Amino acid sequence: MALGFFFDQTRCNGCKACQIACKDKHDLPVGVMWRRVAEYSGGGWVDHGATFTPRVFTYYTSMACNHCENPVCVQVCPTTAMTKRDDGTVFVDDSKCVGCRYCEWACPYGAPQFDAATGHMTKCDLCADYREGGQDPACVSACPARALGWGEIEKLRAEHPGAGAAIEPLPDPSVTRPNLVILPHRDAQASGSGTGDVLNRGEL
Amino acid sequence: MAPEISRRSWLKWSGAVAGATPLLTACAPKQPTREPLPIATDGMAGVDKTVWSACVVNCGSRCPLRLQVKDGAVVRVLPDNTGDDSLLNRQIRACVRGRNMRQRIYNPDRIKTPLKRREGTPRGGGQWDEISWDEALDLFAEKLKHTIDTYGNEAVFKVYGSGVWNAHLGTSGGWMKLFNLLGGSLGYYGNYSYSQIGTITRFHYGNPDEQISNSFEDSIENGRMLVLWGNNPQETRMSGGGLVFTSLEAAKTDGLRIVVIDPRYSESASLLADEWIAPRPGTDAALVAGIVHHLLANDLHDQAFLDRYCVGFDEDHMPPGIPAGNSYRSYIEGSGPDKVEKTPDWAAAITGVPADVIRRFALDLGRTKPVNISQGWGPQRHANGENQARAIYTLANVLGQVGIPGGGTGGREGYYWPLTSWFDDGKNPVKTQISNFGWTDAIERGPEMTALRDGVRGADRLKVGIKFMLEYGGNMLASQHADNNRTREILTDETKCEFICVVDNQFTGSAALADLVLPDTTTAERWDLAPSEYTGDMAYLIMCEKAIDPLFDSRPAYEMVTGLAKRFGLEKEFTEGRDLEGWARHIHETKNVPAVPGMPSFDELKKVGVHRYHSPDGLTVALKEFREDPEANKLDTPSGKIEIFSSELWEMSKTWEFPDAERGDKITALPEHVATWEGAEEALEADAKYPIQLIGHHFKQRTHSTYGNNANLQEAHPQVLWLSQMDAQRRGIADGDQVEIFNDRGRVQIEARVTPRIMPGVASLPQGAWMRMDAAGVDHGGSVNVLSRLHPTPVAKGNCQHTNLVEIKKA
């Protein structure tokens, strides 16, 4: 079994209630964001002199840890602190982490976050404590637009045919095999197409 | 096998410095031992209590929050857990701001104790003495009494502020009740949200407020087209129990086409729109005129509706005594006084929207019925805002869409207004009012202000300027009014306004301009009830239980005023023997429970938190009765009909005075496009000193300026200037550069976000940022009102904060 997130790109307005709900729940300091939201925009304007025609697209991607099938963070961790549970979720065993930040460097999604106060890595574990008590992860129940879900990845994939994770600005999912199902925005661009840019890089 | 990580994507996400791909060592994942997790079925395990509260700010919604309390502190914020994802029973999921409530409660900017400006130091000088509550209330009472005795009650003013919005008790705080018991204070009409449309609608629809359109729910049920005209629910109505949800549902509705009109590619455009049209700011009335021209050319207007329900569309339906050529049709066809035909090509040159787009959109509108044109409040927040608002109304009239399911009036999306049992402030014995925007004028030149020149209501003129000013839960003084530098000059002249008291729970820029600062609590530290607001066809009421004791030496405003009332010998009259909880209970049991079917008792509401209810009349179809029988259900206009030509405005155009008239300072009986000072036309002049139109959109980081000092929200949504690629290139500005935005009124330095998402020639600096002025007078916080202007609009005398011309350069 493997658990993962579902993200409906057609509903996300980039508000980041998910990010804040996560920070509130886990008391994360500024600089540590287990969930981040990227704005991907592209296109431009046709200038006719006195008038303009816009050809513009924008969409958001809310991203925590994708609890990958093939988690590079686990592979590169020299202390085996980065651990995959039986349910497929990946967490940091704090007793082993030495804060070398190798996982942060390796993860294509920027999921492991360094907490300068503790000198250790921290990350999303799909709110294991909440799940244990029958609650949804904090980000999922926070989303005003109902853009987030979670569950057994096979079930999510079955429920959303045509959804995937090969969408800009995310890397090709074939490498780490993220347990992530994205229902694409109408203007979603294929991974690696480079048709737009992440416009809010500083926020990630 | 080493996986090949996409270098480019990875760099994008992590912002790390490029280096060698790490060598991956294959290590088998294994299960470590770990502490068993505490089981919690509702948020955090082991808390003392979880109570219902709300985020009470002026965002147009209102969200419940469940606050978890442990050892007297709020330790976690939980979302609504009632309701579901159905259209009329939706869960009211709080937005990014409310979810950050803990950082508001425990903010380092919390005011801890009453502060008095240090004797002998200038106002705004930043020198304070901490004083006791007794000293503070003595001082307030003494200054208030002195003002009333010396200048009369008209010299007392509670300025606009919306940081505590639409809660039964907190919004009042009791201040006006005390003032009213003491003979009253100068009043104001209108508000910063919709000053122009709120005043001008009376002339068009007879409604003394805005005229709502049909609700989004009605469009979902019955509509074929929804036009969000300068309307951005995804960013201005962010509650998951309100329009974020219903507008998304509209977007998911088959057979409902959505068009967004906005110079910015807003979140509403990116998520909801089948089509996006980008006009220059302040040119909406011109766009409407071009559209109507094409409708007429194709006989797609609703002549029968115009004949029966409206006045002034054509020469056959004019009020008596008006010279020929003054109908809207004459204006459009070029047979009016200006002799200019308002063709799509004419409109294109002004609006920047290609004429073929205008023509195609006109045909879409004419052929897709029913259509709900729903305007936001951006178009009206301009120097010509009254006409902008009326023009959009007029388009809905020309299409005959008023009062039918799926249609609309051209006003903002409709709602079922909840029962709002405000704390009763009593009646203000002073009948004189200024506009919400007129207080700086009233401080500076009060006795010169008249009805015909400055829109004074209830009297021919002011007798006296404002001498005693209270700001409660607002940031008008420093950054939410206009021309912050000039406003500061006016406020720091102690010969004008003699006493300023600011009451807030955060030390804002406005607090810094006060003589006396009183520390209020947050909603979490007091009892209240919070009704919904503009949340469509689902109304609700939220219990706000006192979660924790007031922090530091703060007090709820009601308790401050109780102490003041005591000093005037009015304690009994003021409190009527109740504390805050007593009032909340009393209001709820005597007003809410009898009026709202199924409303739980006060104690029951403490448990369930939220009560939802709906209009017995079903989904909101505005002016349905008027449409059904216009003779029996006349509008409150002189003709009883919709006045596209307003006979009252015609009269006012002759009597109102504009002694120092600037371009656009005029009143027109028709919703004409008026070119104004610092409007699109001026920006386009070849030798324009300031060629960029600067607007200030509502921003996710904060509600106006509330939450603007929260570190998590600054991190999530940093303040940047939206600048088009074209304008950036011309100025050698790259994305991420620090730029200076300037005009004759001020200078702002901030990071530029070079984006395709804004129209060339337009920039946007999201409104509400907290100012950070340096010694050279440059604001590094990014407050758009450093650059906006105090000059009011012609009729409403309102704030036109989207009408600004600036230049931008690399800092």
Automatic annotation (TrEMBL), chain A:
Its cofactor is [4Fe-4S] cluster. The keyword Iron applies. Pfam families: Fer4_11. One of its GO terms (molecular function) is oxidoreductase activity. Keywords: 4Fe-4S, Electron transport, Iron, Iron-sulfur, Metal-binding, Repeat, Transport. InterPro entries: 4Fe4S_Fe-S-bd, 4Fe4S_Fe_S_CS, DMSO_DmsB, ET_IronSulfur_Cluster-Binding. One of its GO terms (biological process) is cellular respiration. The keyword Electron transport applies. It comes from the Bacteria. Residues 55-87, 88-117 form the 4Fe-4S ferredoxin-type domain. NCBIfam families: DMSO_dmsB. Electron transfer subunit of the terminal reductase during anaerobic growth on various sulfoxide and N-oxide compounds. This is Dimethylsulfoxide reductase subunit B. It comes from Propioniciclava coleopterorum. The gene is dmsB.
Automatic annotation (TrEMBL), chain B:
InterPro entries: Anaer_DMSO_reductase, Asp_de-COase-like_dom_sf, MoPterin_dinucl-bd_dom, Mopterin_OxRdtase, Mopterin_OxRdtase_4Fe-4S_dom, Mopterin_OxRdtase_prok_CS, MopterinOxRdtase_cofactor_BS, Prok_Mopterin_Oxidored. Its cofactor is [4Fe-4S] cluster; Mo-bis(molybdopterin guanine dinucleotide). Keywords: 4Fe-4S, Iron, Iron-sulfur, Metal-binding, Molybdenum, Oxidoreductase, Signal. SUPFAM superfamilies: ADC-like (SSF50692), Formate dehydrogenase/DMSO reductase, domains 1-3 (SSF53706). The keyword Protein transport does not apply. Belongs to the prokaryotic molybdopterin-containing oxidoreductase family. This is Molybdopterin-dependent oxidoreductase.
